[in-house]
Design a protein that fits this description.
The chain is 44% helix and 12% strand. With 538 residues, the protein is α/β, with parallel strands linked by helices. It comes from Thelephora ganbajun (Ganba fungus).
Length: 538
């Protein structure tokens, strides 16, 4: 008892973010006496880790956004075999700083405008740390009741935050929510569930006649689900004049064509906020097209943009009222594109991974996925008075993800969550307006989608360019932007048009970072245009 008290006194010696001579002295003296005690070594390493994490975020904006290492750098830096004898945690931690850190791209950097970055809040970090101490696989209620019940509660909190219908609440005992790892897993679970329901409704239909519907702008999760399940996937073309969103007439035509050919569409993935351009499928029209086909499951992939549902003024634009009436399942990522004092761009504010998935009728899930051998049975489960989340997803063991959601939602509150969303959208509008103000050189390829803008060098910047050469110009433009270390963007292609994506989401991003990024984009466009024009003159 005395030893543990001394350890606590030493490790909790007054400390305010900078290493002090006194604290260093105490550690050096104490180490000689207490280094053999595991809890002391853990405290010491833990304090060092927290200090370094704080230093990392404090100095982040002074670092280049992207790593400059070459492929294979880490294999050259590390031994070819594991160590024969154990090494000190201090040496390992130092090697992380010296060897691993240089190979990291900083997704939490305020000038990271690529992809849809993932969140990293200090609340989420603390929640994850606590969850790591409670190593409960969570496959049924009795494993650790708090794990199941907290997930049950926070998923209802999240449903309220996002304005979802009460049909999706766990308290209804009919619908409900569960945390999956990613939107890809959520989509796969939805498609497995949809297939199971369709086969129960149509037991005589051969499985090779089933068809999955996505669009040409749907995330790759749809195509990957088809590969995993061995099912054909049809990508319905979408048009630029529809802002790359699926319209009802396009879906209706495909359904009629396929059914006439003896095919059986059983699920469609509708998207609210596509990866390339933030496009929103016209869910109102999709619902009308599906009116005569109630056996086709409608899954809504709102992985990125769904977090905007938290702000009531954006719900109608995202078709949430119709989603609440007709969707069979919906996914919103807590970890994608938006976050807190230590954060990246996950609008959901929760550290990766954490994908929220709701279903209107939980029986469809459990009938598709319930496998309960005797060793997994419990008194509570047999009585049907608890939820066993292993039957709501593909995996048996599950992480205690709800704990970090709980920490984040309690810390930020609804108002803090909404304020962050609005800030990101306003910063995105600043970038979009900057593009509009330079029509002689740049143009928006699609209308901005909340905090996402898709742009390119405008056709008028080099008059008379045919479409393929304009694409070559913009491919060169992106390559030159990608050579810059001050920011990070990604490219995409919309129906044959090569363009660049710019998305705001990192909490540390401020107006100054957006304006600096646009300055780089503008300067690079001028240089590339001159370079391209000069090369064509020969």
């Amino acid at each position: 008892m005395v030893i543990h008290t001394l350890i606590r006194l030493i490790t909790f010696f007054p400390y305010h973010g900078h290493r002090t001579v006194s604290r260093t002295f105490f550690f050096s003296v104490a180490l000689a006496f207490f280094d053999g005690f595991p809890d002391f070594r853990f405290r010491k390493a833990g304090y060092q880790a927290i200090d370094r994490i704080c230093d990392y975020y404090y100095s982040l904006q002074n670092k280049p956004v992207k790593s400059n290492v070459k492929p294979g750098y880490l294999r050259e830096a590390l031994p070819v075999a594991p160590p024969t004898k154990g090494e000190s945690i201090e040496d390992i931690a130092n090697d992380y700083q010296d060897i691993i850190m240089p190979g990291l791209t900083h997704w939490q950097h305020p000038s990271f405008f690529a992809y849809y970055p993932t969140a990293s809040t200090f609340e989420g970090i603390i929640g994850d740390l606590y969850a790591t101490t409670a190593l409960n696989p969570g496959f049924n209620w009795i494993c650790s009741p708090a794990c199941t019940e907290l997930e049950n509660v926070v998923m209802d909190w999240a449903a309220q935050l996002f304005g979802l219908s009460e049909d999706f609440y766990n308290t209804t005992q009919v619908g409900g929510g569960v945390i999956q790892s990613t939107a890809s897993d959520s989509a796969l679970v939805a498609i497995v569930t949809a297939r199971s329901r369709y086969q129960r409704l149509h037991p005589d239909v051969p499985i090779d006649k089933l068809v999955v519907y996505v669009t040409t702008q749907t995330h790759s999760l749809g195509l990957k689900a088809g590969l995993i399940l061995g099912l054909p996937v049809y990508a319905i073309p979408v048009r630029a004049e529809d802002d790359y969103g699926l319209r009802g007439h396009g879906l209706r035509e495909v359904i009629e064509r396929d059914k006439a050919e003896g095919k059986h569409p059983f699920v469609i993935v509708g998207t609210v906020g596509t990866t390339s351009s933030g496009a929103i499928d016209n869910i109102d029209e999709i619902a009308e097209a599906l009116r005569d086909h109630p056996d086709i499951w409608l899954h809504i992939d709102a992985a990125w943009l769904g977090a905007a549902f938290s702000c009531p003024q954006y719900r109608a634009r995202c078709h949430l009222p119709t989603i609440n009436k007709v969707a069979d399942s919906i996914c919103i990522n807590f970890h994608k594109a938006r976050a807190g004092p230590f954060s990246s761009t996950s609008w959901g504010l929760v550290n990766f991974d954490c994908s929220a998935f709701w279903v209107r009728d939980r029986k469809n899930l459990t009938e598709a996925l319930d496998i309960t051998p005797p060793f997994l049975r419990s008194t509570e489960g047999d009585a049907g008075i608890v939820v066993d989340y292993r039957n709501w997803g593909l995996t048996l063991g599950r992480r205690f993800r709800s704990l970090k959601v709980w920490f984040v939602l309690r810390s930020f509150g609804v108002e803090g969550f909404q304020a962050y969303i609005r800030k990101c959208i306003s910063l995105g509008e600043i970038f979009a307006e900057s593009v509009r103000n330079h029509p002689e050189l740049l143009e928006l390829v699609t209308p901005p989608s909340f905090s996402l803008s898709v742009f390119r060098i405008a056709p008028g910047a080099v008059p008379g360019l045919p479409a393929h050469e304009l694409n070559e110009l913009n491919e060169l433009y992106y390559r030159r932007l990608n050579e810059r270390n001050e920011l990070m963007l990604t490219q995409t292609e919309l129906n044959g048009v090569h363009c660049v994506r710019f998305v705001v989401g990192v909490q540390r991003t401020e107006r100054i970072h957006v304006e600096a990024a646009f300055g780089i984009c503008l300067e690079t466009a001028k240089l590339v245009t001159r370079e391209f024009t000069g090369s064509r003159s020969y």
